[in-house]
Structures are given as C-alpha cells and as structure tokens.
Design brief:
Layout: H1 2-5, H2 7-33, H3 48-57, H4 67-75, H5 77-110, H6 121-142, H7 147-162, H8 169-178, H9 182-189, H10 194-202, H11 208-211, H12 215-220, H13 242-245, H14 249-262, H15 265-269, H16 271-281, E1 286-290, E2 293-296, H17 297-300, H18 311-335, H19 344-366, H20 382-398, H21 400-424, H22 431-445, H23 449-453, H24 461-475, H25 487-504, H26 506-514, H27 523-535, H28 545-549, H29 564-603, H30 610-621, H31 651-664, E3 672-674, E4 677-679, H32 681-701, H33 713-728, H34 738-748, H35 761-778, E5 782-785, E6 790-793, H36 804-808, H37 810-849, H38 851-859, H39 864-873, H40 877-908, H41 910-921, H42 929-941, H43 950-957, H44 966-983, E7 995-996, E8 1001-1002, H45 1008-1023, H46 1028-1044, H47 1058-1071, H48 1077-1083, H49 1086-1098
Antiparallel strand pairs: 1-2, 3-4, 5-6, 7-8
Helix pairs in contact: 2-5, 2-6, 3-7, 5-6, 5-7, 6-14, 7-8, 10-14, 14-16, 18-19, 18-20, 19-20, 19-26, 21-22, 21-25, 22-24, 24-25, 29-31, 29-32, 29-33, 32-34, 33-37, 35-37, 37-40, 37-43, 37-44, 38-39, 38-44, 40-41, 40-44, 40-45, 41-42, 43-45, 44-46, 45-47, 46-47, 47-49
C-alpha cells in the first residue's frame, strides 16, 4: 500500500508548489498595497460604489439586485476579466493547494507514518516544511484586504459576460470566510494531525537544543575549529545526523513555533513539547513567513513575552564568535585546500550558523520593538561576517575538483561497502525495498575516478529521491521493513546522501545554508548595515561583500511568480551599483587626498621657490642682518619625513592606512554576475577616479572668468605630473590599470568638453589666451617679442593682472602643448581662425568701400602726384592696418604654439615625425594643390611650419562670399594688398611704431604685419588658384614705391619713425617663402635698410647687469 500512495513524490511536489503559491500571495499583497501598482479598478472613483457593495455582500453578490452599484463593472467587464484573471487564478491555486495538502495529510495519518529527524531526515523535513508552508499560505491569504473585492469583481464581470457564476467562486468565497481568523481555523483543522506533528517536532529535541547554544558554549567546545585537535585534522567530519548539523536554525524555530501553534493541545499534555516551545520562544520576537513578511509570535503567545530580554546579547556574542571562527577556518583552508574534502561539513555548518544570525538580525532590525536601546539590533561589523561567508563560497567553487575527488572515493570505497554489509545482515527485506537498496550499492560502486578525470558530470538526484522513497516506504505503520529498527542503515544512508550532494549538488546545498536573498526585501536594513560598516575603518576591507551578496538575489525567484523577476533584478542591480559607487567614492576620495598632499610637497620643490633659499644663503655668506627672534624660520622641503618616534602618525599615514583597507575590499572577486549582468568592481573605481580627476585638473587650472586669472601651464603640468606619479602607486594596492586611467583623463582634457559634458582645460586655456592675452595684445598693452619668443607686458601706468611672458614663453607654451596636445591645440587654432576670419570679413568691407580709389592707386602707384591726390580720398587706412596687426598677432601666437607642439611631438613620437617631415619636404606648393594641402594639414597637425597654412586656407574657403565669383574675390584680395601697402606711411605718425632692438619688434606690434601679409596672401591666393609669388611681388613694388616717397618729404612728421617702418619690408621678405632679397633690392635700395638698422640700433641703451 505504501508504494501506491507516492508519499515521497507528493511531498516534494507540494512543497515546491506551496512555495510558489506563497511567493505569489506575497507578490499580490504587495501589488494591492502599493498605490502605483494596484489594479486600477480599486483606485477609480467610479468603481468605489461597486467595491463597497461587493465587500458588504460577499460572497452572496446579487448582480440583479445590485445593478445600480455594479453598472460600471458591466461597462468594463472585458477589461476587468482580463486585468483580474491572474489574481483570480492565483486564489484558485491556493484552494487547490489546500485540497492536495488535506488529502496528503490525511493519507499520512491513515498510514500512521513514523517521523524522526535523526532517522528519516528527508521524510520528516519535507513533512514539517509542508505544514509550515501551508500555514504560511493561509496566513498570507488572510492578510490580503482586497481579496474579496478582487474575486467578487471578477465573478460579477464573469457573470455579466457568461450569464452564470464562475464554477470555482462558491468554494473560493467559502474559503475566504473560513479563514478570516486563520490561526483559529487552522488549529481546528490540525486537530486530527496532532499526533503526527507532535512526533515530528519532538524528534527535534535531539537537534535543536544542541544547535541553540550560547557563544561561550560554542567557544568551550571549540566549534568549527580545525586546529582544536591536530591529530584528527585529516579524519573525515561525520556524525549520526549529518544533515542536521547544517539544518537552518531559523527553519527549526519556524517548525516548532508554527507547529505547536497549530497543535496547541500538545503543549498541555506533553512537558517536552512545552519545553521545546519555550526554548524557541526565547530566541526572538519574530519568525519569517516569506520574504519581508514576519509573524510576531509573541502577540500570539504573550505569556512568554518577557523571556526575550537577554537574547540580543546572546546573538551579538554568537556573531562575534562566528567572525573569529570563520576567519580561522578560511585561513586553514586557504593554506591547505585539500582539507575541504574531509572537512566539507564544517564549511556548511559555518555557513548555516552565520546565515541564521544574519537572518535573525535582519528580521528584528526591520521590526525593532519599543526599546530604549535600538542599537542592540544593529551591528557595524556585519561586513566581516558577510565577507567570510562569501570567501567560503569562493573556496568551494575554486576547489570543486578536490571535493569531488575525495567524496567519490569515499562513496565507492567506504559507503558502498558498509551499506552492502548492512543489507546482507538484514533478516527481512521485501522485494521493492531490496531493489532500491541494491541500486544504492550498485550506483555507488560504479563510480570511478576515470569518470571524474574525463570531465563527466555526475547526476545523483535519482539516488537521493530513491532514498526518500525508501524512507516513506519504511516509515508507514506496519511496514514489513521498519526503518526505526535499522538506525545504522539510516545513519549510513544519510551520510551517503551528504556525500552525493558534494558530487553534484553543492550549489543547491549552498542555497540552503548560505542564501541571503532575503536581504533583497529588507533594503533599508541592508543599506543601514552597509552604512554602519563603511564608517568603521576596520570594516572597510570587507565592504565589497555587500554588492557581491546582491549576485545571489536571483535565487529567490520562483517559476510561479515570474512577474516579480524584473522588479527584483532592478532592485538587485540598483543596490549593487549603489554599494560599489559608495565604496569607489570613498576610495577615490582617499586616493585624491594623497595625491593632493604629494602635489603640495612637490610644489615646494619647484624652481620658483629657490630664490628665497638662495637669498637666505647669500645673506648668510655676506653676514647681513639675521632674521629677528620672533620670526619663524621657513621649513625646508623634506622636513615632513623626519620623525623622532614611529608611533607618531601623520595625516598621510592615516590616509595610506585607509587606502590599504579600502583597496583590500576589491580582492574578494574580480567580477561577479547579477542577473546576467557582469559587474567589475575595479571599473567603478576607475570611473570614479576618471570623473574626480577631470574635476581636479580643471580646479587646478584655477580659472577665474571675471578677473581673467589662470594657473601657468608649467605649474599646472608640474601639478598633474605629481598627481600621475602618486596615482601610479595605486597599482600596488589593487589591480587597476592606472596608465589607462591617466590616458583617458588626459585625452578628455584635450577635447573642449569631457565625457560628462563639463569644460576642460582646453576650453579654459583657449578662452584665456583669446580673451586675456590676445585681446590685450591687440590693444598693444602686450607686445609680441620675437627676440624672446614670447609676449611681454608694456610699461604702462595700469599694472597688468598677469605677466604675459610667464604664460607665453617657450616653457609655458611647451607645457601647454603637453597638457592639451594636438587635439587641444587644434581646437585653439580653430578659435584663432574664427577671430582671423572675422577680421578678414571687415577688411573686405573696407576694400569694397574704397574700391574705385584702390583701383586707380594700383594703376598709378609709381606716380607720386596722382598718389598724393588719391591718398586724400582713401578712408580707413588706420583701420586696415589695425585689423591686419590683430591678424598678425594671432598668427604669430599660432606660430609659437606650433613650434611648441613640434618639440613635444619630436620628444614623444620621433618615429612618427620623421616620415611626416620627409613627406612634407617632397611636396611643392606649385604641384597638385589638393595633395599639397592634404600633406600640409597632416604636417600642421604635428606642429610643422608650412608655406601655406592649411587651417587658414580652409577657414577662408568656408567664408560666406554672397555667391561672388573667384575673379571678384581675387580682385578684392589684390586691392587689399594695395590698401595695406599704401597705408604703411601712416604708421610713421604713431610714436609706438618705434623698433625696439631689445624686443626685436615694434612697440605697437606692427612687426606682426609681416606675418599677416605673408600668411593671409598665401591662403587667399591658394583658395583663388592664383600665383602667390606674382601677387606678393606686386605688393612689394607698391609698398616700396610708397615708402620711398617718404624720403622726399624731409620736413614732414612722417619721417620720425621712417626707419622703423622701412624695416617692415625687410621682415616681409625675410619671412616669406615666395619672396627673395633680390626681388626686394629691385624695388627698394638695400642701403636704406642698412641705414635704418643702424639708426634704430643707435638709440638702444646698453645696460650692464
């Protein structure tokens, strides 16, 4: 008969089904209590009357008598049927589950089954699980306020659509009414099952008291310690009740408390029942029903409420003990992984004990009772316990082969032999039982190391299911073979079952003993534990355990409730990412604080601080006045490294200690998976460092838009180099690619905006050079100095806010080229070109305004009388020269930064520069202009000077010309050169047109006209496909003729700075690749240039340092 009942199969199926139904009820309850996700029919005002009517009349809802209330349901019947169908079917699942549980429990009672957790462990465990699951489902059903409205509304819509009520509705309605007071009704139902339930629960007396010990008792027994008895270290860990050793304490408490709540009559008749009940009650205030749903067991049994006053201290001591015990266990197993074979049971015991303590703390912290000390339900050191649990899981995964190899030999060479001996010694063995036990021996004996080494996957689930079947067959009353009469058989089979699980079922066993997915539903407590641990410096090395735990949240999903998968996935990812971002933020903050400190120390060693030290040493040597007694002598760089006592801890020491702790947390795993999303903790640190480092670099630039102040490029470069040097030490703490980080950040700084849309130093320095330096250079407040290759301040009454030479000298521009690189300088050049084009546009307008006069001047440039008359008609000469000077200043600055870029490129990638130079040298400007410009563009990007500026050519070609033809543009360009040439004499009227030998240029920057004329003419004539040399030669003739006429007016004012202006012609020819000295001498006597140089050099005052 026992074979026909299929008790084992039904227990397994109903337990899984019941767990799914319970999860589904919990999900529906949460949906109905969340205003955002609640079915819309219960938030719609028009449905309010119908909902109240259904709740009042339930379950006898008359759709005819209540038509005035239910009219809206009739209108939306199709939508209601579709929207509430899944809810209705879920309640039918509860009803069907209840029917199957009734049937099975009655069958078990009728069969007079024997239950003992130490003998038929699986049979007893599944029986108790089913009882608790069933009670939990009914309890969750009673907690749903909207269940009557959902079922009633669905049935009304069904009746409106089909003309009759749903067949399942009467029974559903009756079930809802019966379980309005669930525990009372359940206790009535379980009256007939009291004997079986009590027998199963009382078998826990041999397990539960032994598991429910204090931390001191654990410590005295040296629980979980492999070092307690070195002689037995290699002996296999085994006992009579293997599976009971890692059985969840929380599960046992749930069995005891709910079991005796259902069968309370046993408490009055049996002293052992009462003792077991009291022992479980003393262990806490709440038990978990499902997920974050808890049951305040003391509200149901208030007689024992005052017994829990000391449990908080006991639990805290247990957690402290487990932290140390797990730490020791991990150290030993890491050193000797082979011990994972004989001592695997210790690992699962440690995980189970730790999980019990975590779950107790979580469910009580979420539901803190009224107490004066809520901190008793907090633990700032939970990170360490989480870390050790994850470490044990990692060790099991890493050494899976070691565990399998050991237990395979144990099963085939010991368990199979012992089991065979026991079977041979049996007096009575029915056929069915005999077949099962023979299969056990043959299965275990057939296992071989060859199968393992060949990589075959083992599947021993049939073995374990057959053992459960055998337990069911031999536990019924009047069984021919009673398992309780053969305790040795039960012991060996329970041990063999654990060994088989080590072969193919380790992951499922980990779910039983180490699953912390309940934390997904206690978000507030989980985040609070993380916050408390992150504030404790000693816990920071364990923080990564928090996000890793999120990778196990997928284990709480069930096929019966797929709707919650997306929500749990999003919640898991969000928590994991938030934890890692916070860890990375803290690490990044410490790293950058260390970098800032190192940068400050490095800044003290910069050459600019040496003057004071040199001055002090010189004064000391010359025996000048010593500093006063009150003056504190300035500390020399390096004094911070001197300390008299190593006990003295500096701020830098503390930061390095914090960095060591935080970086150690990244060692728990290189990556982990959360719902098929691979998460790499080090990448979060990389991302945070990238964001913060970009901000730090911009802050170091110290740009003030209102005052136009900014850090010198050389100072900023030194600071960044100090940061980078310090950052490279980070790779000593954790595995992070600092080179990739630095390259990424510095490359972003060469763009106008970084990857997050914030301004970079490229934008800041571009704005500063345009608005700060070049704008003042355009007004001649700052002078371009060819001799020093920089810009210098003019000696004026108004003191400048900065020294131009500090930013534009060779060192400053080289540093700028290093900082923003070719990409950044390209952006700067584009902005320079925009300013040049705006000036060219204005110049073209001036030419158009004087078109007729300039045409005549071009034809009569060698006729002094005609030129004199035409000169009076010309307007805007000074404006033309002013704008050309601005263009020249910008182009001179561009030339300087191009030189700096060339030096930088030569230093960093000479292998790239040599072929570019070679290619450029083989290209001639009179060849195919497209090919030439392509090569020049490449050369210009590398900083090489070109005969024709490709950037200027591109900018002029893109100018809006109002659809004018190339010939018209060519005419305007020629006349522009004539305009410049005939305007040169007006420069003599400006007293600042004096040539300074010291600067190698003029005081008003007119020497930049030479650069402007050459570059602008070359670019414009290239666009117009005209001969550059011919047109520049014409310009030279006109300019020479006009300037020679100055020599005939001896008494006029123009001759004051005539010699300085003459030099402009020589500069134009000298800088032009298209003009030669022979061409100049044909137009302008060289003797005049020689005399001009002599005159301007006469006035130079020599000073001796």
């Amino acid at each position: 008969m026992a074979y026909q009942f299929k008790l084992a199969e039904k227990l397994i199926i109903l337990n899984d089904r019941g767990q799914g139904v319970l999860i589904r009820m919990n999900h529906i309850k949460k949906l109905c209590t969340d205003p955002k996700r609640r079915p819309p029919y219960f938030t719609d005002k028009s449905m309010e009357s119908a909902t109240k009517y259904i709740n009042r009349k339930f379950p006898n809802v008359d759709i005819r008598g209540g038509s005035q209330h239910l009219s809206n349901i009739q209108k939306q019947k199709s939508a209601i049927l579709e929207g509430l169908h899944s809810y209705y079917e879920s309640f039918i699942d509860v009803m069907e589950f209840r029917d199957h549980v009734y049937e099975l429990l009655n069958t078990i009672d009728a069969s007079q089954c024997y239950f003992n957790i130490g003998v038929n462990f699986d049979f007893t465990k599944n029986y108790l699980d089913l009882i608790v699951t069933y009670a939990s489902v009914i309890y969750m059903l009673s907690r749903m306020d909207d269940k009557k409205a959902i079922v009633g509304m669905y049935n009304c819509a069904y009746e409106f659509s089909n003309g009759n009520s749903d067949p399942s509705f009467p029974r559903l309605g009756q079930m809802f009414i019966e379980y309005d007071h669930p525990w009372k009704k359940l206790s009535e139902e379980f009256g007939p099952h009291t004997k079986s339930v009590t027998e199963a629960l009382l078998s826990l007396l041999m397990v539960y008291p032994r598991r429910n010990l204090s931390a001191d008792q654990w410590r005295n027994a040296q629980l979980l310690s492999l070092l307690a008895s070195p002689a037995a270290m290699l002996s296999p860990a085994c006992c009579d009740t293997m599976a009971c050793e890692y059985l969840s304490l929380e599960a046992m408490e749930r069995w005891i408390l709910i079991g005796f709540l259902l069968c309370h009559s046993s408490l009055n008749t049996n002293a052992n029942s009462q003792n077991l009940w009291k022992m479980a009650l003393r262990n806490g205030l709440y038990i978990t029903v499902i997920r974050d749903e808890v049951l305040n067991i003391h509200k149901l049994s208030e007689d024992f409420f005052d017994t829990c006053h000391s449990v908080k201290e006991l639990r805290r001591e247990k957690r402290n003990f487990l932290r140390n015990a797990l730490k020791e266990l991990i150290k030993v197993l890491e050193d000797e992984p082979a011990l994972l074979g004989p001592k695997a049971l210790f690992v699962f015991m440690a995980l189970s004990f730790s999980r019990d303590e975590v779950l107790w703390l979580v469910r009580h912290a979420e539901n803190i009772p009224k107490t004066k000390t809520p901190e008793d339900y907090a633990d700032s050191q939970m990170a360490e316990l989480f870390y050790y649990m994850e470490k044990l899981r990692t060790l099991l995964a890493q050494h899976r082969y070691v565990i399998q190899r050991y237990h395979l030999q144990y099963l085939s060479q010991y368990d199979a032999l012992v089991l065979n001996d026991i079977i041979q010694g049996m007096y009575v063995c029915p056929e069915e039982e005999s077949v099962l036990m023979s299969s056990f021996v043959s299965t275990l004996s057939a296992m071989s190391l060859k199968h393992l080494d060949a990589g075959e996957e083992f599947d021993l689930k049939p073995f374990r299911l057959d053992w459960l079947r055998l337990q069911a067959y031999t536990s019924v009353g009047k069984a021919p073979l009673a398992l309780k009469d053969y305790p040795e058989l039960a012991k060996v089979m329970n041990m063999a079952q654990f060994h088989t699980r080590m072969m193919d079922n380790v992951n499922e066993l980990l779910c039983e003993t180490a699953d912390l997915s309940i934390l997904c539903f206690h978000t507030r407590v989980f985040e609070k534990l993380f916050s408390q641990s992150s504030e404790d410096v000693s816990m920071q090395r364990y923080l990564t355990a928090f996000p890793v735990i999120c990778s196990h949240f997928s284990q709480c999903l069930h096929p019966l409730c797929p709707e919650e998968a997306e929500d749990i996935e999003n919640r898991s990812l969000k928590m994991s990412v938030n934890f890692l971002e916070e860890i990375s933020r803290q690490t990044c903050m410490v790293v950058l604080e260390i970098c800032a400190e190192q940068c400050n120390l490095h800044e003290k060693l910069l050459p600019k601080h040496s003057a004071e030290t040199i001055s002090t040493a010189r004064n000391k040597k010359l025996k000048k006045s010593l500093p006063k007694k009150g003056d504190v002598p300035k500390e020399k760089p390096g004094t911070e490294s001197l300390r008299k006592d190593r006990v003295i801890v500096t701020n830098l020491d503390k930061m390095h200690q914090a960095l060591t702790e935080l970086c150690a947390s990244y060692s728990i795993c290189a990556d982990f998976t959360v719902f098929q999303h691979i998460i790499v903790p080090a990448e979060f640190l990389f991302s945070q460092l990238e964001i913060r480092l970009n901000k730090v670099i911009v802050q170091m630039a110290n740009y003030n838009q209102s005052t136009h102040e900014i850090a010198r490029p050389s100072d900023l470069l030194a600071g960044i180099q100090a940061y980078v040097t310090s950052l490279h030490s980070l790779s000593c703490y954790t595995n992070i690619d600092v080179t990739r980080l630095v390259k990424s950040v510095l490359l972003q700084q060469t763009q106008p905006l970084d990857s997050y849309g914030a301004q970079t130093i490229t934008t800041l320095y571009t704005n500063w050079f345009l608005e700060g330096l070049l704008r003042q250079a355009s007004s001649a407040l700052i002078v371009h100095c060819p001799t020093k290759q920089c810009f210098v301040n003019q000696n004026t009454e108004n003191e400048q806010s900065f020294h131009a030479e500090e930013y534009s000298d060779i060192c400053g521009l080289r540093s700028l080229a290093e900082l923003i690189g070719p990409f950044g300088l390209k952006f700067l050049n584009e902005n320079l070109m925009w300013h040049i084009i705006s000036q060219v546009g204005e110049l073209k307008k001036l030419v158009s305004d004087n078109m007729d006069v300039l045409v005549q001047m071009r034809a009569n440039y060698d006729n002094p009388e005609a030129m004199s008359d035409l000169q009076k008609k010309l307007t805007g000469s000074e404006n033309v020269l002013k704008r050309m000077t601005i263009v020249g200043v910008i182009l001179s600055f561009r030339s300087m930064i191009q030189d700096a870029l060339e030096e930088s490129m030569d230093r960093h990638c000479p292998f790239l520069m040599r072929p570019i130079k070679c290619l450029k040298d083989f290209i001639y400007s009179d060849g195919d202009i497209k090919v030439t410009l392509s090569v020049y563009e490449m050369a210009s990007a590398a900083g090489l000077p070109c005969e024709i500026d490709p950037a200027l050519v591109s900018a002029i070609a893109n100018m809006q010309t109002d659809n004018s033809s190339i010939e018209e543009e060519f005419k305007i360009t020629c006349l522009l050169l004539v305009f410049i040439a005939v305007s040169l004499p007006t420069l003599c009227l400006d007293p600042n047109s004096f040539y300074s030998r010291e600067h190698g240029g003029h005081q008003n920057n007119i020497h930049c006209l030479a650069t402007a004329v050459n570059h602008l003419a070359a670019a414009m004539f290239t666009v117009q496909r005209k001969n550059i040399q011919t047109q520049l030669h014409e310009f030279l003739k006109v300019a020479s003729s006009i300037l020679l006429q100055l020599g005939q007016n001896v008494e006029r004012v123009e001759i004051k700075n005539r010699d300085s202006v003459y030099l402009l012609l020589h500069m134009i020819v000298e800088q032009s690749p298209f003009l030669s000295q022979d061409m100049l001498e044909m137009c302008f006597p060289y003797v005049l240039l020689r005399n001009s140089y002599r005159e301007v050099h006469k006035t130079f005052i020599h000073t001796m340092g």
